[in-house]
Amino acid sequence: MAERGARLLLSLTFLLLLLFTTAAKSTDKGSVARHFTPFWFLVEPADILAVRGSPAVLNCSAYSDLAPRVEWKKDGTFLNLASDDRRQLLPDGSLLLTSVVHSKHNKPDEGYYQCVATVDSLGTINSRVARLTVAGLPRFNSQPEALMVYQGDSVVLSCDVNLDLVPFTRWELNKEPLDLDERIISLPSGALVISNVNESDAGLYRCIVEIAATVKASDEAKVEVLAETGMPRQLQFLRPPVLSTKVQGQDMLMPCVATGYPPPRIQWMFNDKLIDSSGNRSKIIGGGSLLILNVTDEDTGMYTCLAGNENDTLQASAELMVQVPPQFIKRPTNIYAHESMDIVFECEVSGVPSPSVKWVKNGDAVIPSDYFKIINEYNLQVLGLVKSDEGFYQCMAENDAGNMQASAQLIILEHDVATPTTPSTLLISATNDHVAQAAGSGPTPSAPRDVVASLVSTRFIKLTWRLPAEPHGDNITYTVYYKPEGSSRERIENTSRPGELQVTIQSLMPETKYVFRVVAHNKNGLGESSTPLKVSTQPEVQVPGPSPNLRAFATSPTSITVTWDMPLSGNGEIQNYKLYYMEKGMGNEQFVDVGSLSYTINGLKKYAEYSFRVVAHNKHGLGVSTEDVVARTFSDVPSAPPQNLTLEVRNSKSIMVQWQPPPPGTHNGQITGYKIRYRKGLRKSDTTESTGGIQLFQLIEGLERGTEYSFRVAAMTVNGTGPVTEWVSAETFESDLDESRVPDKPSSLHVRPLVTSIVVSWTPPENQDIVVRGYAIGYGIGSPHAQTIKVDYKQRYYTIENLDPSSHYVITLKAFNNMGEGEPVYESAVTRPLSDPLDPEVDVYDYFNAPYTPVPDPTPMLPPVGVQATVLSHDTIKVTWADNSLPKNQKITDARYYTVRWKTNIPANTKYKTSNTTNLVHMVTGLKPNTLYEFSVMVTKGRRSSTWSMTAHGTTFETIPNSPPKDVTVVSKEGKPRIIIINWQPPSEANGKITGYIIYYSTDVNAEVHDWVIEPVVGNRLTHQIQDLTLDTPYYFKIQARNSKGMGPMSEAVQFRTPKASGSSVKPGGRHSGDDFATSVGKPNLSGNPTSMGENNIPMIVIVIVSVGAFTIIVVVVVAVICTYRTTSKQKKKRAACKSTNGSHKYKASSKDLKPPDLWIHHERLELKPIDKSPEPNPVMTDTPIPRTSQDITPVDSSLENSIHQRRNSYRGHESEDSISALAGRRGMRPKMMMPFDAQPPQQSVRNTPSTEPLSIPGQSICSVEHPDPDTGTGFLSTSSEEETNRNPPTAHVRPSHPLKSFAVPNSSGTSFESPVLPSTPLLAQAGTTPQLHSVKTASIGTLGRTRSPMPVTVPSAPDIPETSKMLEEVESNYEPDELTEEMAHLEGLMKDLNTITTA
Fold this sequence. Notes:
GO biological process, one term: cell-cell adhesion
InterPro entries: FN3_dom, FN3_sf, Ig-like_dom, Ig-like_dom_sf, Ig-like_fold, Ig_I-set, Ig_sub, Ig_sub2
Number of strands: 88
Protein name: Neogenin
Family: Belongs to the immunoglobulin superfamily. DCC family.
Keywords: Cell adhesion, Cell membrane, Disulfide bond, Glycoprotein, Immunoglobulin domain, Membrane, Repeat, Signal, Transmembrane, Transmembrane helix
Helix content: under 10%
Radius of gyration: 41 Å
Strand content: 35-45%
């Protein structure tokens, strides 16, 4: 009886389970697709003009079902608002600047701001970019002047200020506010126009600039009104029209003020038509100026002002340009799609000037590549969709008038989920059939049979197949899936009509292996896939191959001979050879046609390095270029003398001789020293002294007192001595000055206070027999010891700047020499109040007509004028000047010389360098790159010297970094032995703004540079994270910095051994021990929405109630069965299930703090990867996988790179653009969505992502399963390991066996094939005898906007790097056979049990 009851209960249990499964299937059919999530900006920041010291607010507010997190970027870098006491994030997302900071040298708040809104597990959107401008200090470019005007005439009072100060400008008449009307107007420049003047307009006028608490008044100008005499006066323009640029919607005032008698009449013409000034939008005010309200694009054109009276007529024209901000004609729309499909986001914009469009995905810029393309100027096409392409895409349009954005969401559906009946999507024709049909309930076709490549060419393959064995229908259509071997992105091609059994795949790459599979589908849906077919396209072999044994050697200082052999694969008769050559680093390549196998090139530069390559030519065209070879011409004697030879008399018995090396390009070898010849008077015999190395000065001692000596210098190389300079003379002193005691006090001290500065002038001590080395100026409020400045002994004045207005300063002056400082003199001064008008320019020479220090003649010389600094290179600036004390022809006939001094323009740097010359031009060399210098010049004649001239400024050009990154350290990440953190400091000699770093790492410190793994890092980062390294393995790390000019040297290799295994059960590379088989019923799905269980479904509710009612009985029966019939087999299955579950979720972690995923894809599992983004000025840790495409790194110079590309592919003119496209992702990776180093806005930054640790499900003691945070939108268990979302830091590798996991060592015994298309450096080789190889990752460096094969690795520091293309067949990672067999058997048993239940 008990047994019958048990059987009854079991039957009831199976029945309820069957009903529950059927209901669940019915519910799943109704859950067609996830809904699009509303996510947009309610308010976006706008451009604002802020006032220094006042608060400013940038508004921003975003809307979504889930509360978005708002952050702010300034100039492309995230702001750290948590530690900023001046910037605050308001509750609605707006940014508050409590007090705007702005000064001449510190402008931290001015710039471009962008609001960034993020919803975890959903995506990120960026707002438009808003510009914050801070109004400058009140300053007048011109001030009003006193005028006399006839009654009835017009007058213009100048008050030109910066455009940002115009809104704060007003006028006063007799210190009373002046009301403006149509007779009295203010022009856009700030000037005041009074038309039809009458007696009441006479008085004192002044212009007032009032900004915040600062008030600045101009000089007062008196306007006198004269009675009209009736005498004719010449017609003239007081203010003609000027070019004007306005934004649509603004008002435009075009000035035109004319004067004369009889009074002129003003008319306006637009292009060639007369303007009706009585209209609603345009009228004439202020006696002739044209006002147009609310300008539009139609108002753009030429405006002409016509002024005429009875005696004369004048006209003046100016153009108005109206800019129109970007406007969306068509916005991108939300899209549903399946994996492997091709989609297009449409975006059409208009504006004046024509807007530029860029695309952003989840906050990061989309870089064009093989799979992301900009078509029809603005549209974004995504080919071969993968799961990680899901997210928010934004079309960002920008021109000079403004910018705006529009966003759309992309949802990738599962293959068994139908798209909505009216999807808001744009799909290319090849995918329409694949999307539109929903799966039915009947059987689907079996796999197509006998898939073969019936025709294989270099760029297309024709596939044919036979009908499936079980078609299950008549109208069978087919879809061909194909991809380059190793790529994760599949493309699709549909047959053109039902029943067609062939298709031709176009636009393939030559000599590339592709994987094809064919799937049939009927009205019930997609059927089984055919077995993958691997086919390689044919190589293009019509043109000659490279010429072997290319050699180059110098034959003289100006010639090099080049020899080579015939190509091994000439493909016909060789017509001739092209020999290409260029000087290293110059970039202008030349070539000669050669009919033999050798050639001597003459007329080369001496001791210069040249590169050579040869390309054979047959009837089909140019062939494959050889690798470059380098040779240097022989050295020779210098061809030019040293420059800037100057003499400085030190005392009565010594003269310091200084010079500069010969001009660049004339050394003709390494300068080994200099030969100095000198003689006394006009004697013919001379004395010779030599210097060694690069010494550029020599002290000549033992001379006679009061005697004239002449000097000249020549440079030397190993080949001999070059030409000498002209003789330069100097006379030693009659007697020496005393330096055994400190100088006396200066004989006088004068001060002249201004508003924020004090001009100090002095005369030297009366006792001029004591050496004076310089002067020390001390100053401060109430005490002279607050600040101290030291100046040169020849200087006679100094301006103390950056003082407080209306403050009392005490000033002291002391002369000093090597013995110490002398007695001081004191003076005091009170700076003027801020409201005082600006003083006119001070004539420094007239004000400081002071005698020279140690000379008896008190009359100083005039200082040089017109000093100009012309930048010639990164270390050379040419300084030129004029001397007013010379004749008009500026010819020097006496023994005067000039002293040029210079220093970097840094307030803290007061140390000058000087050089003497006898010419009016001087080449200053040995400067630091990318540095601002100031120059001044002084003239000396005998014992008389001038004051220093006005300064000139010049900034040297950038050049490549001279030193590597320093302080490179490597540490292991706590708790994660496979992850290391590498830190470094910028190069000590960056020579420009660092735009990026490249990290090289390898397990072999002696490996070639192209065999090291490369990871790029943006320039504002000083730390980086590298993950998934092999445990207990030594690694070597190097870092290379780059700026806009190229790559610097690499740092020394730093060794680091990863820790030993930490006992993790997860296999290397993140593989799980078993495949997932559980489904995510009742758990959050990918979008974060709970899985629908049939809301408002009455039958479902009934089933649930019945299930709950029988739950107790089921539990009792199940427990009884388990306790009675537990067997060893069931125990093994349970242990296997636990192992599988744990392995499936080892790397799933809580992600409540994760930032939106970036577009990094795991090689085999298509996983979304988060990327760290740091708002800190000092960068923090970030993760960047190895780049896969040429878009990740840009070369040194685009023009140089283009020439190299042309040279490397001399015969590629026969190829289409698609043929040159790279096989992006051939290792299962995809391009990272971020800007390259050179192309970014002033610098794009990324945010920091806190690390996450796995969370265990409470209450599970037997099988501990990792439980994701619901906010991440990750299912509890995934039905396929390829669809899991890995929350580890980003990586770009597959299951490794090599310790490096990225570049395998080439196997010399393996079979390989050379590419005749692209010569490249062998990165990977394929062993023919090895049955299985592990996948590896590769890196490539290329140019933005030009697709190239990811196979070659181009080292960015050199323009010409050999490239060879060899491919490695990717094989699936191997598992342990016993473990895999056990798990598959267990899964098979479960599936059979489920089938039995559902069919019962």
